[in-house]
Specification:
about 80 residues; alpha/beta; four-stranded parallel sheet; 1 helix; globular
C-alpha cells in the first residue's frame, strides 16, 4: 500500500491512496495496521501542524511502514516548525 498525505491531489496516481485532511488527522493514530504500508509520502503538512504533531506523525509512520518501507516528506517551510 502506498499512501499520500497532504499536497493537492484531486485523484491519486495509479497504485496510490491520497488522503485529505478530512480523511485522516495525522496528529492522531494512523488508520493502518503495523507493517502494512510500503510507502508514505507527505507533502506540505508539517508547516501546518505543531511540532509535537509532526513528531507523532513520524513515529506513527514508522509503526505502519513495512521493513524496508519508504517515508518521504516534503516541507518547504521548515522554519515554521
Amino acid at each position: 500500500m502506498k499512501i499520500i498525505v497532504g499536497g493537492h491531489y484531486q485523484t491519486a496516481p495509479e497504485g496510490w491512496i491520497a488522503l485529505s485532511e478530512q480523511d485522516q488527522d495525522i496528529t492522531k493514530v494512523l488508520l493502518w495496521d503495523d507493517n502494512s504500508v510500503s510507502t508514505m509520502f507527505s507533502e506540505h503538512i508539517f508547516e501546518h501542524i505543531p511540532l509535537i504533531g509532526a513528531i507523532h506523525f513520524c513515529k506513527e509512520t514508522l509503526r505502519v511502514l513495512k521493513v524496508g518501507g519508504i517515508m518521504r516528506t516534503v516541507c518547504p517551510t521548515v522554519d515554521k516548525l
